[in-house]
């Protein structure tokens, strides 16, 4: 299940970096924002889990598009460090606002009634909701990969980042397409936040607790590699889970040990392209 969260979050990061060349350090804060959107929708407006899966990514994606249009658009021609510093500052602001209004205590979110219970597989009792998280994550990852790599829209996206003026000459609105790409990337983070809400305590700190691990996943898979982010996120989640069983003391560091080894042997990442 952790691998599913890693895959969806790192996929959003890979899309934003691969297509826009922005290292989005606010991704964890927007993941937390998505979880809180689901919590606020349920407790303030009576919006259930299934609608939150649709509405939270839209709300957070629209917020991301506002960020892209007003702030990030000024940094595309500059070094990556400026985008990283800006998004890091945004992450601190977003987290600080949620800590001010909600405190640091975790907020519970109930498992939807349709996904309660568990299935006996003979060797393990598999909670229905955890199985749903894995299935939903795989579905959204495959759909995103297919959209970017195998459709005409995805071709426009890739071409627009390579040669914006040429694509605009064919009548494509490249600035709008870039805004939608950033919105889709952070919308994936919000989707992961809604999936995580019933299995963890929703807290303003949940984004900062996971973002470093997700960046490690992206680095191992290859910066900007969509397939690498999906495969590496799922695989490292399994490795982390097995480590907790076999040698629990190493479970918090195993991903970073793997990252160090990969960077030594293949600096571009497992699926990345050499510069």
Describe this structure as you would to a colleague.
- This protein is mainly α.
- The protein has one domain: ABC transporter involved in vitamin B12 uptake, BtuC (Orthogonal Bundle), CATH 1.10.3470.
- The chain is about 70% helix and about 0% strand.
- The chain has 11 helices and 2 strands.
- Helix 1 runs parallel beside helix 5.
Strand order of the largest sheet: 1-2
Kindly estimate the percentage of residues that lie in beta strands according to DSSP: under 5%
Net shape: globular
| Helix and strand pattern | HHHHEEHHHHHHH
Overall pLDDT score: 88
Major sheet details: 2 strands, antiparallel
The third-level CATH topology is: ABC transporter involved in vitamin B12 uptake, BtuC
What CATH first level would be assigned?
Mainly Alpha
The termini sit apart by: 33 Å
Give the proportion of residues in helices.
over 70%
Count, helices: 11
Multimeric state of these chains? Answer: single chain
Helix-strand category: mainly alpha
Number of strands: 2
Low-confidence stretches: none
